[in-house]
Amino acid sequence: MDPVYFLLLVIGTVLVFTFTNGFHDAANAIATVVGTRVLTPRQAVVMGATTNFIGALSGVAVAKTIGAGLVDSQFITTSTIFCAMIAGITWNMLTWYFGLPSSSSHSLLGGLLGAAFASAHNHWSVIKWSMTKVDAVSGHVVKDGVYPKVIVPMITSPVFGFIGGMIVMGLLFALIRPLRPRFVDRLFGKLQLASASYMGWAHGFADGQKTMGIVALACFVATENGDLKNAPSWLSFLNTPTFEIRHWVIILCGLVMALGTYIGGWRIIQTLGHKLVRMRPIHGFAAETTAASVLMLTGRLGMSVSTTHVITTAIMGVGCARRFSALNWTLVERIVWAWIMTIPATALLAYGLVWLARAIGWMN
User: Fold this and answer.
1) Is-contact 202 54, C-beta < 8 A?
2) Cα dist from 198 to 12, 48, 132, 190, 257, whole Å
3) pLDDT digits (tens, 9 = 90+) for 21-77
4) What does the pLDDT read at residue 17?
């Protein structure tokens, strides 16, 4: 296939992943507001799609981490990215089918790392594990790479989500103690509209940027490798001589994620909103506010954090604020295993796809 049109195919594949992220992770933003019956599913997906889009336009720190901070681009080709995306999409569809709230973010990361490792012929140096650099804007010395931007937040963000959910719920219990239950439900039913919008924005802010980084990386490596030297003039916008997140990338990825959210992932919404723990509006408010705040902070720092992990552990923390027996521990075990398996599974799948492509002569 002509390299120019193959790049378009790769970008299309990234957008398919973005779409699956939208409907796969729609539950992250709207499960609690549906589970507490504050909004109908249709109202919730409209709100979720709108706030996702706004969130996706709100920053590019995470996009830069994904596109330029994790792997050495000199070993990356558009074929590498294609294999990574196919692996991520496959895992997203598999976990969606079984209704498991696994992390689309981690399926993308696992696919990228596995495909990059295979493209570099098993040289670990292709992966930027940890490095120190000076921030061009602030002038501060900052850490970059897989360890500080992926592994550390992957471990700590669920902990913050769980503990934060417990603390917020405990404080709210103390505040509402003298109030009548019916008044509490009405009050937090209204407040949850704000917290669900906040969570929808945070989901777009955290997850929308990740595929922006991949699209930008695809255009950059295609330009570097000379794939676009014979490109038609109407495709000149694809030429990216230096890595940057262009406006058309931001808007396109934001729109596709919003569309995916509008379609909705009802299987996972049912898992998070109904099966994990019995919820009322006050619980939804506490979980959404906690999770969105964690996502906003980590997103500002350029950390790639799983929206699924944070909101799910926040819901767990809220459920445990009163008693630990409130949780469905069998379901928790299934969710945790899906989390543990995501990066290794997608990395292995992407690695195998690259070697298969090489075996049939599609890649060098």
Assistant:
1) no
2) 29, 10, 33, 13, 16
3) 777 666 656 766 776 677 777 777 788 888 989 998 888 888 888 888 899 988 999
4) 87
| Cβ atoms within 10 Å of 5's Cβ, excluding its own | 11
Burial class (CB in 10 A: 0-12, 13-18, 19+), 61: middle
* Angle CA 39–268–13, to nearest 5: 110
Cβ 143 vs Cβ 90: under 8 Å = no
Question: What's the rounded Cα separation, in Å, for the pair 238 and 213?
Answer: 14
Q: What is the pLDDT of residue 309?
A: 81
Cα first-last separation, the chain: 15
**pTM reported for the whole predicted model:** 0.86
| 211 in Cβ contact with 16 (< 8 Å) | no
Q: Which secondary structure element, helix H or strand E, spans residue 97, and what is its range?
A: helix 78-97
- List, for the chain, all residue ranges whose pLDDT scores fall below the cut of 50: 273-274, 276
